[in-house]
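Technical note accompanying the year-one report. For the benefit of new consortium partners, we illustrate the data format agreed upon in the data management plan: each record pairs a sequence with a structure-token string. No post-processing was applied to the example shown here.
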Amino acid sequence: MMMARKQDVRIPTYNISVVGLSGTEKEKGQCGIGKSCLCNRFVRPSADEFHLDHTSVLSTSDFGGRVVNNDHFLYWGEVSRSLEDCVECKMHIVEQTEFIDDQTFQPHRSTALQPYIKRAAATKLASAEKLMYFCTDQLGLEQDFEQKQMPDGKLLIDGFLLGIDVSRGMNRNFDDQLKFVSNLYNQLAKTKKPIVVVLTKCDEGVERYIRDAHTFALSKKNLQVVETSARSNVNVELAFSTLVQLIDKSRGKTKIIPYFEALKQQSQQIATAKDKYEWLVSRIVKNHNENWLSVSRKMQASPEYQDYVYLEGTQKAKKLFLQHIHRLKHEHIERRRKLYLAALPLAFEALIPNLDEIDHLSCIKAKKLLEAKPEFLKWFVVLEETPWDATSHIDNMENERIPFDLMDTVPAEQLYEAHLEKLRNERKRAEMRRAFKENLETSPFITPGKPWEEARSFIMNEDFYQWLEESVYMDIYGKHQKQIIDKAKEEFQELLLEYSELFYELELDAKPSKEKMGVIQDVLGEEQRFKALQKLQAERDALILKHIHFVYHPTKETCPSCPACVDAKIEHLISSRFIRPSDRNQKNSLSDPNIDRINLVILGKDGLARELANEIRALCTNDDKYVIDGKMYELSLRPIEGNVRLPVNSFQTPTFQPHGCLCLYNSKESLSYVVESIEKSRESTLGRRDNHLAHLPLTLILVNKRGDTSGETLHSLIQQGQQIASKLQCVFLDPASAGIGYGRNINEKQISQVLKGLLDSKRNLNLVSSTASIKDLADVDLRIVMCLMCGDPFSADDILFPVLQSQTCKSSHCGSNNSVLLELPIGLHKKRIELSVLSYHSSFSIRKSRLVHGYIVFYSAKRKASLAMLRAFLCEVQDIIPIQLVALTDGAVDVLDNDLSREQLTEGEEIAQEIDGRFTSIPCSHPQHKLEIFHPFFKDVVDKKNIIEATHMYDNAAEACSTTEEVFNSPRAGSPLCNSNLQDSEEDSEPPSYSLFREDTSLPSLSKDHSKLSMELEGNDGLSFFMSNFESKLNNKVPPPVKPKPPVHFEITKGDLSYLDQGHRDGQRKSVSSSTWLPPDGFDPSDYAEPMDAVVKPRNEEENIYSVPHDSTQGKIITIRNINKAQSNGSGNGSDSEMDTSSLERGRKVSIVSKPVLYRTRCSRLGRFASYRTSFSVGSDDELGPIRKKEEDQASQGYKGDNAVIPYETDEDPRRRNILRSLRRNTKKPKPKPRPSITKATWESNYFGVPLTTVVTPEKPIPVFIERCIEYIEATGLSTEGIYRVSGNKSEMESLQRQFDQDHNLDLAEKDFTVNTVAGAMKSFFSELPDPLVPYNMQMDLVEAHKINDREQKLHALKEVLKKFPKENHEVFKYVISHLNKVSHNNKVNLMTSENLSICFWPTLMRPDFSTMDALTATRTYQTIIELFIQQCPFFFHNRPISEPPGATPSSPSALASTVPFLTSTPVASQPSPPQSPPPTPQSPMQPLLPSQLQAEHTL
């Protein structure tokens, strides 16, 4: 076989001819055997260039064109391929066919007239300028296609591909085809050229045809057979490469791959390309509105796109794109559909929420109903074109309304049915809830506080379980319980108010005794409202204690009606009536009575006073006004820096009366100056009646230092300042440690705090605008108090309307916000009346302390508590003071249909008749009464004015003469704690900054009637004697003041530059006036003496019996009697009761004018609980304690004789003295029967007061209560000033312990207990242990170890003793000391050093037996031992080395002893001992105000 001449020596070129059955339709059938498709796929394998239709029927012109060129063969072009051995070659492909004339359907005539078999076997082909063939469309349009000519116009054929169609051809017999192929093969074989049999159309092949074709090939010299499919592009390349291998023998033999295996490989390749292309489309195309043109441009450069288009073509790629777009659109529509369907129930709820409206409507009728709704278009949109998902509405994202045609779909109908069912279920559940609530309301078994577990069986039925979830009925039950509990509490509070007489008769204090609490329980026990809270005993007890606190300490804040307290309403009404905006612009405070004046002294040397004055002025307005709590005050400053004895530096001038003093220091010298100036100022005013400076509120302030030239530390200045503040009993501020910047001595907040304290002091002591008030009060003719009940069902506005609208009504100039001045014609003259409008609880405080000419008392006829409070109030009013009762009714009296109202009206009238008072009723429907209805009452007041004033003067004089010490009776009667303006707290961390003595503002007005009264009362020897005695005393002693909190009495010696004894006057003994300052602890009324006989008696005829802790005896109680009494009575050893009875009888005989009695003695309806008044010992529960019996016996044995003076040891505890004094006064009276108490005394706790071993376990060695308390304190209270020093509220402490006893999981933070309450409760836990935490048998060992002089040996010895502690005690002691160590690290903020903490804690932790002298002498040692444990906590408990003592820090005992000697003798604040053991010996109050070190420096 001759090979064709190679055109390129480097790249072999092969010319291949594709032959097969051709001819007319008769010969080949309706379609060819696929020769053209085979050539097309090989030459142009890209899918876009592959054409299935290649016709052989041509017109004469097409046949003669340059592509066919009048030849019966087609030139397909040149192809370059890299074969399996990576050698590139070129191939020219020629297809031998036979073109049919479209006119004659006979073969076209060509230059070669040979039949197809001979023509197909030709090896030399020539055709000049013959163009390459692409497709049928090229014919006639050759210029539109690439024009490439057959090389040189001739080709030499190197091999033949013999095609056999194995498909089921139309109108063609396969056997005939094989005959044709056989003949053709014979002709081809003559050419000696390689032949490869190609089976075409195998994708549609018939199995028999394929077998026959293989049989034919085997019969013809083992011809190579390749099964192909041009349409599927299977083995097309293999067919041509096989022929090339046969042509070029040097090439390796090509492996023939069966069709189905090759098809599988091709399918996998297409599938991979398709996956990649689909991923590309999904990544690029996100919106269903994308178009193919723009997306295909984006994808053209991507290999995924190119590979798939190459294999499958652009049309298939576009088809996949369109499918993706359709999917996106479908997903978008479904999302929109879901949104619409989700909004549809909401539309139903908004438009058709009423089940009655749609209960029987179908979905179609519901649609019509929806369209009629006004808000239909808010929820739906009606589209012109439907359905909505085939319109552009799907792309209108801004319109979220629901297409109305959606209602025609099945899901919408289902949602409508679900809406109906939901409404029906809700109606049923609502019915069940109502039925459940009705069951709760009507069931007698549901009581306040009853747990759900107990109530379940009474109210639950099957329907409730079926229709209500557990959370629902639990919530309903919880809300119902809250409602009935709140209602029960309100009703119980009303019950307590209805028994106001009982609470006031019991004379309760802050710590009510067990007997008194038992009386309350006995009296209230049968009341249904008391029993209603049976399951809430802790809360009931808390309400009782809270009410007791209100009775003892009534303020606007503690008032049960708070914040609707009458006092607050009245203040607002009066202030809004008289304060006008124009007044605020007036600069002259004298012409503006609504702006209070605050006179403030600023004391400090070396420019400190002037600097602070300038800083305060900078905070004021241009006219020296200062705003506090929204109200404007005129601020007048007086800086003093020199000798206060000089007039120019005097605290007080004729035009300047100070209300308070700021004392500034920044060194020892300036602190000495402050102390010396205070002493000089007090000494200069000693003995004056207006001894205001002796009790001037002081505030000591450590300011920023400009330089530390003396080398002293800030800490030592703070310590010394605290000590001086404790001595002076004043507030101490330390802005230097609060981070105030340089140049600012004190910030605005602290200035406002100081000024608020001064305002409170001025209000409480009637010093507001004192100069104006004294003058104004002297001009007042009558003082009337109008009493209103808080919580009554009437408006205070209506009651006061006729008063405030009166033309004669003016603002009171006494600085009070609840009083006005009226000028009314009474009789022949006009009278100026000061009308004070107060709540009843505020009025209690002025009954005995203030001159009042008459009371107008209002009460509601339909409220029992209102009349009960009125009765309680009238019990203590003297029977000479006129009373006007006013009953407020719902309507006219004659039309009342309420039995209670009629009953209360009748009782009010009867009370008025029995006390000779006046009575009137006012209907609440027309409460605008006129002042004229009170004119008869005012006339009565004018008639009794003189005797009222005389009696008031006598009472004050008797109080002044009866004792050298201020005497405190019931806090409700005389304690200014009843003032509603005072703070409502027993936990004040700082003593209030206000003066303790109050000038009786009634004295100036009384003095002008003095001569007149003397003339009227001539002839009465007793009264004449009393009058002269009163005059003598009045010139020497100010009547006893009413104090906000009781003082601690200090005797200040002459060496202390304090008060001096004035000697004797008129031959009578005059005791030294004691200086009094507020103690840091809470008020304990039992610490003070009470008069044993309060009846005013002439001294020459009757005895004066009273007990006082006399200052000069240093703690001894002296009982003084009048010896003449025993002589006149003729009895040498008369008892107390005998003396009291006889003195009372003589008092009645002497009082010819009849000393006024209380209304309780004249009215049978008053004082129904008076029998309880004298049936109790004085003192609180804690004060009496377990030693009552022992001391009672000692008192009864030690008190003998009339003139006996009973001395006690000077180290006797003051509380013990008070208890003994109380017992001594009652030795002859029968001992009251013990009563059950609702307080802690009868509370049998399983946790508190039990041995320590019962509340700890090996797994939890720390009591849970202690752990909770300490965690709470460390989380919230480490910065609390005075933590563990400032006492907590006792009732809150007991409530905390009680609640914890009931629930050990109590959350302290949730209950909102104060830090001091938690701290006090924690200390109380240790106090109540049967044995102290530090065992008694260890205490002496600790004392012995402490005696070791060497510090390190001492600490190791203490540590050894500590190891001997019981395990339980050791673990708890370690936990508590570690906590105290942490507290001491914050001492700069909380001011509690290790020394201060040890002072507060050692009595609680050790509780020594003070009956032994050793324990008494070891007091300081005990404290020091606890201090060492706190200081060296890491060494004792955590195996750390011994820490060095703070050498210059006064917190250590050694440093204190060396640097500030006076600190070791008197601590800043002492904590009272627990009630289980006697307290430590109290330090003597005889300490100088100036420390010895400062005194020494000062004298130098």
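Partners are asked to follow this layout when depositing records. The mean pLDDT is 75.
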